[in-house]
Specification:
elongated, five-stranded parallel beta sheet, Alpha-Beta Plaits, Rossmann fold, 3 domains, disordered C terminus, 10 strands, five-stranded mixed beta sheet, alpha/beta
Length: 548
């Protein structure tokens, strides 16, 4: 249905028009009416009419002024003028401002008015088709240009290029470098997967077209620049300012791009700047650092930020935490307490954030944890192998595509909830909630000084009653469970790391190495060094056998 707004100061004229035409049978609806131009302009934003039928003479704002205002503010709205015999000069003025037809009030024939409106709508539809075709053509041209630009850009970061070759690639990109200097920016979309799927209906080309158009228009307003997609959701921009740029100018440009995307398109981004270059070889060196800039932005919130320090790629500090998480997960799967899985993953990612662990390492650990949960479920016969409800390959893809820690948290929360549902489906009798909370507390704090009193207070129970309940539910005394948790973790560390025994003792909560040695021997029948040597020799033999 095309929407019509009728504007006339005479109520009987408005009523006559509404009653003399079967609007809906002709594909129209009277969406509103107004008594003058001022009232009409107030209603237009909410009504969004396709056609305005307006009297030429009205108090307050007449038809000529109204049509002029509509042509300036809403050029897609078409106007028809109603006039009397002595108003032809005003009609000509209205036609000059954009009215497409006129009718005399005293001789108006409803069928001719309908025919005129149909003609207007046909022309509007044709204009829309032309505009759609032009937009599609621009997108096609842009898509091909983007592919060409990306090729030249990738050529720029080939290691064997000399300064002359880099210069030729810069020229091929159509990039004007003032005084052969500039800055490199990294633009990353927050929640790219969700943005692409929901706002742009998975049309990556349209999303890219939108981002590049807005960003390049702002960049080229006071400078020369080119923006290129690196990977889905991540873009590199090479910008050269006409004047010598200081930190304030660089930050101001980044902020303008960020603000425009946020305010006009509701797209949140992280824009990282800080890499300046002079000459082609410095440009190339800066571009080679873009991947590291992506990793730096992993822990950033939306907004404009400078490049941060490099993350430490060493993951040894996180390994004990990961081994502890495996123990927790195994315990909770066996107990059927899946509600703790999302919390375990959230705490793990918070720990990674505090340590600013290298993003690829964080993602690797997350995938390992997901696999471990799935393995535990299969071992407990709680999940048919290859169940479509838990697609581990999809989890791996989603984790790999995460550009920020926030996106990774969303992915983890989603698959952890799915795992929790399956764990509950195991149907095993669960422990009392207080005991499950106590076990979770021990797993998270066994490295510290943990007492029965601490845990009883944590679960809001009397110490003596809690001790009896824990023994009844787990068949172990509280201190036995705590010692077993610590020593099982020590076994894992002895086999999976080269850490010194004294350091491992401290890691699992023993400040006295001699007491640790006695406890370990009582639990395993061997000293820690004997256990490490014996078990590692078994692994070496198995490895040789497998190779044969």
């Amino acid at each position: 249905m095309y929407k019509v707004l009728i504007v006339d100061d005479e109520i009987f004229v408005r009523m006559g028009l509404k009653l003399s035409i079967e609007w809906e049978s002709h594909g129209f609806t009277v969406a509103g009416e107004a008594s003058n131009g001022i009232e009409a302009l107030k209603k237009i934003p909410s009504i969004a009419p396709d056609i305005v039928i307006s009297d030429i003479k009205m108090p307050g704002m007449d038809g000529v002024q109204l049509i002029k205002a509509i042509s300036e503010r809403y050029p897609y709205i078409k106007c028809i003028v109603l006039s009397n015999y002595n108003e032809f000069e005003l009609v000509k003025e209205a036609m000059k401002f954009g009215a497409v037809d006129y009718f005399l009030k005293v001789t108006i024939e409803p069928e001719k008015l309908v025919a005129a409106m149909r003609q207007i709508c046909a022309e509007k539809a044709n204009e829309k088709r032309i505009m759609d075709d032009w937009t599609e053509l621009k997108q096609t041209i842009h898509r091909h240009q983007t592919v060409i630009d990306k090729k030249f850009f990738l050529d720029l970061i080939k290691p064997e290029l000399n300064a002359e070759t880099v210069r030729s690639r810069v020229e091929a990109l159509g990039l004007n470098l003032y005084d052969n200097r500039g800055h490199i920016f990294l633009l990353m979309l927050c929640d790219y997967e969700r943005l692409s799927a929901l706002r742009f209906r998975s049309d990556r080309d349209l999303l890219e077209f939108t981002i590049l158009n807005v960003a390049e228009e702002l960049i080229n307003d006071q400078s020369s620049g080119k923006i290129i997609e690196l990977t889905p959701g991540a873009y590199a921009a090479i910008v050269s300012f006409k004047e010598q740029a200081d930190e304030r100018m660089v930050h101001s440009l980044a902020l303008r791009v960020y603000t425009a995307l946020r305010d006009y398109l509701s797209i949140e981004t992280i824009i990282m700047h800080g890499l300046a270059f002079e000459g082609e070889l410095q440009l190339r060196e800066g571009l080679l650092q873009l991947e590291q800039m992506k990793q730096s932005a992993f822990y950033a919130a939306s907004g404009v930020v400078s490049t941060e320090r490099r993350h430490d790629p060493y993951d040894g500090a996180m390994h004990p935490t990961y081994m502890g998480i495996k123990k927790q997960i195994s315990q909770f799967v066996q107990l059927g307490s899946g509600e703790f899985i999302p919390t375990i993953l959230s705490d793990f990612l918070d720990n990674c954030y505090k340590q600013r662990l290298d993003p690829p390492i964080v993602k690797r650990y997350v995938v390992l944890i997901a696999h471990h949960i799935l393995d535990e479920l299969i071992m407990q016969d709680g999940l048919p192998f290859g169940s479509p409800d838990l697609d581990i390959e999809q989890v791996e893809r989603q984790v790999d595509n995460c550009l920020t820690i926030r996106e990774l948290k969303d992915v983890c929360e989603s698959f952890a909830e799915e795992y929790a549902i399956w764990i509950r489906k195991l149907g095993r009798p669960t422990l009392r909630e207080e005991v499950v909370k106590a076990i979770d507390y021990i797993h998270r704090h066994y490295r510290e000084r943990v007492t029965l009193e601490d845990v009883a207070e944590y679960v809001s129970m009397n110490k003596s009653y809690f001790s009896r309940l824990f023994k009844q539910e787990t068949s172990e005394m509280f201190h036995e469970f705590l010692i077993r948790t610590r020593l099982e973790q020590a076994q894992e560390l002895l086999l999976s790391t080269d850490a010194r025994i004294g350091d491992i003792a401290t890691e699992v909560g023993y400040n006295d190495i001699f007491y640790f040695n006695r406890a370990f021997k009582a639990y395993t029948g061997m000293s820690p060094s004997e256990y490490r040597n014996k078990e590692q020799s078994k692994l070496d033999v198995n490895s040789i056998t497998t190779k044969k």
